[in-house]
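Page 37, top half.
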Amino acid sequence: MEVGYYAGNRERLYKKLCPGELLAIFSGEDVWKTGDECYPFFTERNFVYLTGLRCKSAVLLAIKDADSSVQERLYILPPDAHAERWTGTRVKPHEAEAISGVKDIRFTTAFDSDFKALAYSGNYGRIYLDLYRFTPSDADRASHKFLHVVQREYPYLQIGNADALLRELRLIKQPCEIEALRRAGYDRNFAREPPTRRRTIVNVLLCDLLPPNHINHWNQPLFQMYFSVIHYTAFRAFLREFKRILRNLSAH
C-alpha cells in the first residue's frame, strides 16, 4: 500500500476522536514460548492498518488538542547493534517516516516521559487503547499492560476502546484495498465457488445483515471477494460479529 493509504486511515480515525483525547496503538511484543525461544512475531493488525510498519515494541501516539488539531508521534526501538545481531534489524527513523507518513519519529525510551507530561498537563481526559481480545482468557497484550499503568498512575483518565472505532473503519474498504484483493485473486477464488454457495453468501450478507436503507450503498463484488476467503467452519461466528458491527453503524 502507498503511504497515503495509511495516512488516510489515521485521518479518518482522528476524526472520531473528540478534542482533549489521546490515542495509543501498540505494535506488539514477542510472546515467550520456552527457554530462550519466542513464538514468531506478528505485528498487531490495527497498528499495521494505521502505519504500514511491521516492527515490535513500537507505539503510535495521537494527541487531539482543544482546537481539534492533531499531533501524531511514532515511537520505535532505538538502534542497538548488539541486539540486532540476535533479533534482526530494527526499523530506522527515516524508514518509519517513509512507510507511515508520520513526521515526528521518536525512540521508545522517550515514550513514558512524554506520556506522563501529557497526562499531567490537565488538557486531556480520555485515552483510547486497542483492547481487543479474542476470548476473555487471552493473555494481556502491550495495550492491556499499558491500560494497567494508566489505571494505576493516571486514574483520572477515562478509557476508550479504539478497537470499536477501528472495526467501523476497516469494515469499509478503500479502493486500493479492493484492487489489492483483485490482484491477489480473491475474486477468482469466489468465482470458483459453487453458484449456490456464492448466492448464499451474498444474499445472507445483503438481505439479512444489512439494514434496508444500507443495501444500495454497499458494493456487492466487494462482499464477494472479502468473504470468499473466510474459512467456512468459522463463518457463522464471523457473521454474528459482523451483524453486531452493522447494527452499531446503522444506529448512528
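Page 37, bottom half:
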Amino acid sequence: MDDMGVLPTFTSTAIHDAFAPYARYTGATHSLCNAHLLRELAAVTEHHEQGGHTPGPDNWCWADQVTDALLIVETAVDHAKESGSDAIGADVLATQTQLIRHCALITGEHHPDQQGRTEAPGTRPADPQTRRRLPTLRHRLRRMFR
C-alpha cells in the first residue's frame, strides 16, 4: 500500500471497508463506508433470526435499529442534495445519532446462544459468532459520529 505513495501522506478523511492495515496511516481520519457497515448489520440481523428469533417488537434486534437510522440519514442527505442544501435537518441527525449511540451502548447486553443460554447483562454474549462481531461493530458505531 505504501508503494504508490498516496496513503502515507494522506491527511483527509479516508472512507473505506475497515481493512485493518489502513489503521497504520495515522495522518488520516478514518471513516467506515456505509455499504460495508450495512452488510455487517445485515449479517447480525440474519444471525439473530437464524437463532430462532422472529422479527417483531418482542424479538428486537439492535442491528435493525442501527440500519433503520442509517437509512433515514441517507435519505435525508439525498433530499438535502436534491434541494440544493448542504446539510440535513439538525433534528433528524440528532434523533438518528441518539438511536445509533444507544445501540452501541447495549450491544453487549443479553445475547442468548442457540440453546437459549444467556450471560448476565454487561458480560460477553454467549453465542461465539455474536461475540466475534460485537467488538468491531461497537468500535465502528462509536467512531461514526465523531
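Margin note: The chain has a mean pLDDT of 77.
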